[in-house]
Amino acid sequence: MRKGRVASVILMIVVIIYLLIPLVATAIYSLFANWTQLVPRGFTMQNYINLFANADFVQCLKNSLLICIVPILITVLVVLLTLFVVTVYFPRLEKYVQILCMIPYTIQGVILSISILSLYSASDSFLGIRLVMLVGAYCIIILPYIYNGIRNSMHAVNMPMLLDAAEMLGDSKLAAFFKVIVPNIVSGITVSSLLAVGIIFGDYVLIRNIAGSTFENMQVYLYLAMKRSSTESAAVFVIIMLITFIIAAVVLFLQSRSRLSRIESKEKD
What we know:
The chain is an all-alpha fold. It is built from 12 helices and 2 strands. The longest helix has 39 residues, at 230-268.
């Protein structure tokens, strides 16, 4: 039994090392002037200094964060209100809402972007604005992740019972929902939102097809950097991966803390 456990640990370590080799090699490559021989030469941090001194790179970073926040806020609000109405007034419709929210899993970015452009690009209304179309596309892409996170959190806190208790104390259902339910599912909302950030942050297809060159994010900047310098593009890739790792670490931390809090609450009960 112990030998099998040791073998599993060794196998896991080997797999992790194998998966990290490309990332480590890219990080090393970004720290040297050239790597044309077996050993890289010319250690330098100039690539990173130049990037953060570059106004275009900083603007792309700001654009990436901005285009993450707006769709997530819209999607979270829509999903919260939808689940409130469905759970309280139309519980039989929940399965149909779930099916609708799962459809974006099957939609490819190229198909979605072309469909949106063909439908709204000629419109004279605000829906014809490229940024509005991009925000709408991201709302569709992240919908399944936001929906699953919020729905699971609501089922974990027994939403109908809490609403009935708050209503007996004089609150309306909607007021009780935002005063009682939402604060209790903040961790679930946060986790699903961070997952959505990772998805939007790594997008290239939608923003390139819909926004073009009018609104560039980190992935577009990486694509353009690959044409200028391989070491610069390696540094951009490392920064993107670091941000992604930070997001993943925060998600795992919040999930583990939420799991521990549920276990502790069950033990107290």
